[in-house]
Write a structure and sequence with these properties.
The structure is a single chain. The protein is α+β, with helices and mostly antiparallel strands. It contains 11 helices and 12 strands. The protein folds into 2 domains: 96 residues; 272 residues, Endonuclease/exonuclease/phosphatase (Deoxyribonuclease I, Chain A, 4-Layer Sandwich). The chain starts with a helix and ends with a helix. The C terminus is likely disordered.
Length: 386
Amino acid sequence: MSSKTYDRYSYRRRKKKRYFGIFEIIVAVLAVVTILCAYAGNFDPRDFFMAPFMVLGFMPMVILLLALLVASMIWRRWWSILMIVVALLASLSTIKVFVPMNTIENLPPMPADTTLTLKVMTYNVLGFNYNEPEYSDEASASMRMILDANPDVVLLQEGTAGGVEWKEIPSLTPLMGEIEAKYPYIYCSGEGLNIMSKYPFTTEPLCEPQHARSPLGYNREQSSYLARAYDLQLPNGKQLRLVDFRFQSYHLSFGKSMNARVSPDVKPSALERMRRSFALRGDNAAAVRKALDASPANLIVCGDMNDVPASHVYHVIRGNDLKDAWMNAGRGYAYTYNRHHLKFRIDHIFYRGEVQALRAERLVGGSSDHYPLMVTFDFDTVSRRN
């Protein structure tokens, strides 16, 4: 072999090694970042302000790693494949929270007697579009979807607009007869947490709403979170507590709506608004968690958390006793917020006690900026086991 040929071969070999090394470094960095994002929800945003943003970026990082895994397999980058697989396995518990891998075969069987089940829906209905004139002349698509789905209990957030009664909302007027016939027990609170139920209940507020001037700079009283309990009287004397909540918003459209007026001296950036909102939701979650600890054993917790699975707020609310209904009975990735191109599941249903989630559904439609979650529960598991 001539000296010239040898030199050319050595150059190609060195070039290949150098390229290989850069690719490995990139993959290694992304793998480490993905693992950190998977567990960033364990940190309080007030202690580590980047933690909630890392949780929001977790699924995009997983998708990026999967794309790199395919590329590594095509290019036969074996060390890259190994690092990606290790990162995905290390993050698997969080992946399952975002994307449950349930199948019909591994879900509990539906009881033959449907009277032993309870369908619960949670839905932020955006005030049934009361403040949006384009929806004022037609029956509410959100309420129409609720009536067609026919859950036993519907827990609503933003169910009223400024305390306006349902009969005064144009989009609900043509549906009131059907609503009252199907749901004889309705409670509409002034703060917007409403319930429609086929069973009788008693209700009480949980955690007095915070009316102090918010760090976000409101120039009027504003509740930063809401929570209300409903004690249902189910057939055969069984009792079940439902808790409905709504936590602090991201305020992505801050300053553009009547609900986001700010004082002239306080106009934080979008990033700062989100950071402060994360901190406020931490306070919301701690207060509601305290109320959940004092609640009866049989409990279903629903609401607009305004935060994603595996976040700090999610961990606080779920604690060590509540189960995530979507994780246990849902399938695949399902987002509930449908605006601003943000495809996140920020609405959640948890449960504990003598109830079991059998099926979880994300319904698509309506005219709100949220999609509803509906879960079919078995509330007679104890007697059936005995």
